[in-house]
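Help needed: design a sequence for this.
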């Protein structure tokens, strides 16, 4: 049945009106109509699109209801990598950062855009001719997951950009998060359905965005702020400050707390200002971010490894809790480094339950004089590994003993040697040590190295313990028959792992070099070697 012109025009008018009201509500915080009136218009558009499906467009607000479940997420390659940020934990780090920028740029003063560092999930949204076509997670920075349908369910995400001077291709970066109220509501809903309760808003946001059924995501009160760009075809403003203003005119929601500051002093003043109101914000933040505002200077400064030189995350003081040491053990890593670890009475710190904390090295144990039975203060900052920062000797039980660092490896019995003025302990056993073999194979198979899907830590440990592999090369001789004898590996999983091993043979040279675990050859050096030797 042909669609009449009045029907087509009515759909276009409803769609445009709903986009406008979404913009006023989510970006300007200035709604022009009641929720009931919005719902009436939305319902009318749903009815018309159901009756005339040929009128449905990629930017229709009705797509926010979600779509049928996917079997899995497709990979999305970020043409411009989504980098991490270097961290600052005190004022001296900020002063050093500003000094480096001024010296490299050969200028006396630098303008920065400062904004709160949201504790959520980083995403990338690609708009073509103003229409949202792909939404992806950060993943490992180079490859993320296609969560387009889930992204479209977030009401503060514009499905079509508004205004003028929009680049033909515009990739924007942002952070998906849950407000405190949204988090409470989500857990109340989960509790009423006897579902899984989320530990903190960040985990809840990440779990919601990675639902294979976007109809479930549509029921979660997710929010987003945008803060930067990736790939762009066309002209964008020449300062980061102006870019955020353009975002707002295009319908992209930005943090209302973003501000322009000058020099290290301006950065530190902003940090102190945000720290004072942190507890009153409706969402979690774990610091502030400083970015050089001049876009041409950003480009000139470039990146170091996986972080831009022109940006810095200034973290708030770590969250700390008190608990009791139940044991002290040493772990042997891939390079033979022997690291002491405190086994703790489980304690909730920084949004997660912590039962282990690093003690770093022998000198740190001596400095703390930490003993089994001690009451200790544990710190966790963001995603940093928990650490013991102090010992309350006033609560020390009687008859405790000082911890004696072992002379031989607890795994293979080889002699432990010391480097760096006796600070770094290392097992001398090399690949004779099963712990080093396990860790080297885990590294070889990891996502940023050979990316062998299905070869998890538990599988690697079984392969080494059963003497099925002596080194990474032996992986490629494994058969389905050998693998099905392992725990957690049924026939289909074993077949998939063999196929994954076969696929990994066609990896890039830099990944292979990084996977070998050669001393001093990390990702960046591996990339440089591969580029040189071809």
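Sure. Designed sequence:
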């Amino acid at each position: 049945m042909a669609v009449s012109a009045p029907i087509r025009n009515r759909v276009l008018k409803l769609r445009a009106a709903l986009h406008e009201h979404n913009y006023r509500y989510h970006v300007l915080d200035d709604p022009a109509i009641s929720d009931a009136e919005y719902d009436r218009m939305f319902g009318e558009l749903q009815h018309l699109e159901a009756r005339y499906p040929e009128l449905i467009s990629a930017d229709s607000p009705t797509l926010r209801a979600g779509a049928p479940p996917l079997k899995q997420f497709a990979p999305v390659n970020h043409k411009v990598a989504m980098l991490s940020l270097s961290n600052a934990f005190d004022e001296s780090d900020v002063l050093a950062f500003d000094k480096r920028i001024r010296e490299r740029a050969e200028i006396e003063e630098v303008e920065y855009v400062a904004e709160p560092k949201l504790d959520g999930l980083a995403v990338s949204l690609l708009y073509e001719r103003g229409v949202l076509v792909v939404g992806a997670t950060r993943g490992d920075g180079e490859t993320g997951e296609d969560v387009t349908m889930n992204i479209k369910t977030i009401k503060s995400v514009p499905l079509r950009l508004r205004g003028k001077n929009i680049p033909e291709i515009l990739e924007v970066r942002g952070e998906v998060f849950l407000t405190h109220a949204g988090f409470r509501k989500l857990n109340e809903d989960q509790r009423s359905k006897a579902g899984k309760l989320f530990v903190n808003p960040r985990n809840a946001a990440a779990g919601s965005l990675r639902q294979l059924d976007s109809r479930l995501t549509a029921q979660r009160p997710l929010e987003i702020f945008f803060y930067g760009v990736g790939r762009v075809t066309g002209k964008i403003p020449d300062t980061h400050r102006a870019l955020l203003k353009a975002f707002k005119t295009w319908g992209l929601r930005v943090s209302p707390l973003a501000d322009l500051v000058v020099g290290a002093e301006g950065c530190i003043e902003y940090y102190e200002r945000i720290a004072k109101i942190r507890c009153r914000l409706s969402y979690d933040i774990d610091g502030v971010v400083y970015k050089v505002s001049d876009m041409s200077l950003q480009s000139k400064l470039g990146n170091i490894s996986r972080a831009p030189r022109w940006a810095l995350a200034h973290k708030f003081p770590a969250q700390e809790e008190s608990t009791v040491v139940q044991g002290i053990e040493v772990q042997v890593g891939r390079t033979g480094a022997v690291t002491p670890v405190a086994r703790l009475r489980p304690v909730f710190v920084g949004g997660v339950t912590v039962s282990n904390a690093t003690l770093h090295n022998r000198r740190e144990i001596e400095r703390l004089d930490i003993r089994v039975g001690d009451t200790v203060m544990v710190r966790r900052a963001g995603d940093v590994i928990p650490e013991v920062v102090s010992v309350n000797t006033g609560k020390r039980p009687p008859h405790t003993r000082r911890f004696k660092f072992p002379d031989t490896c607890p795994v293979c019995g080889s002699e432990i040697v010391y480097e760096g003025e006796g600070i770094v302990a290392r097992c001398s056993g090399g690949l004779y040590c099963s712990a080093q073999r396990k860790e080297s194979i885990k590294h070889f198979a990891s996502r940023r190295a050979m990316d062998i899907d299905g070869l998890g830590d538990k599988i690697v440990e079984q392969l080494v313990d059963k003497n099925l592999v002596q080194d990474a090369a032996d992986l490629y001789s494994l058969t389905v028959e050998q693998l099905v004898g392992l725990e957690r590996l049924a026939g289909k999983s074993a077949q998939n792992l063999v196929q994954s091993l076969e696929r990994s043979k066609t990896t890039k040279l830099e990944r292979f070099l990084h996977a070998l675990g050669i001393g001093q050859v990390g990702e960046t050096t591996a990339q440089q070697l591969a580029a040189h030797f071809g």
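The chain has a mean pLDDT of 90.
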